[in-house]
């Protein structure tokens, strides 16, 4: 990736110029390093919008690749706030529309903003696992996606992604600024849109949430090779 000094210089520029330069940088990296293969693009034709895209999470490049693949719909990505606070990773954030939410907290303000966006017609893209998988396969999802899906009432489109863990591998020491691009085949598999299942009055809340969350995550797992399915095999 670019140096911290260069990233800081870019981020001092006017917003429109920051976005323009960031897009140019990311486009150059993806063109050079990523061989992107897409399956299921026909499932995007005629879908109901706004919609919520849900996808497994392997790399900080996931959002960059998906932003390119879904450019016609141009969804807003629900991202952890820390990505925007770092000069280097913020370059990637500048490329796609994002709304921040504080992970592992009851972020009422962030949630209200998300719901407002959907009501205004914005589609979302959420990584339900809440963080990148260090195992290289699916990990347990957080329940936040259930609340967002229920409160917006938006239909859901599952996406399976793999190969990005090779394109931009996670730094073993947790330093995102030290991550660098590598040549890789990246695969995107887009599933069919489905409706979020509402809870019946007589249904136990805990059982409902557990079943619904697993149902959604298995929809993603079905789009991945077996080795990437992790806890959702």
UniProtKB/TrEMBL annotation:
<keyword id="KW-0012">Acyltransferase</keyword>
<dbReference type="GO" id="GO:0016746">
    <property type="term" value="F:acyltransferase activity"/>
</dbReference>
<keyword id="KW-0808">Transferase</keyword>
<dbReference type="Pfam" id="PF01553">
    <property type="entry name" value="Acyltransferase"/>
</dbReference>
<dbReference type="InterPro" id="IPR002123">
    <property type="entry name" value="Plipid/glycerol_acylTrfase"/>
</dbReference>
<feature type="domain" description="Phospholipid/glycerol acyltransferase">
    <location>
        <begin position="51"/>
        <end position="164"/>
    </location>
</feature>
<protein>
    <submittedName>
        <fullName>1-acyl-sn-glycerol-3-phosphate acyltransferase</fullName>
    </submittedName>
</protein>
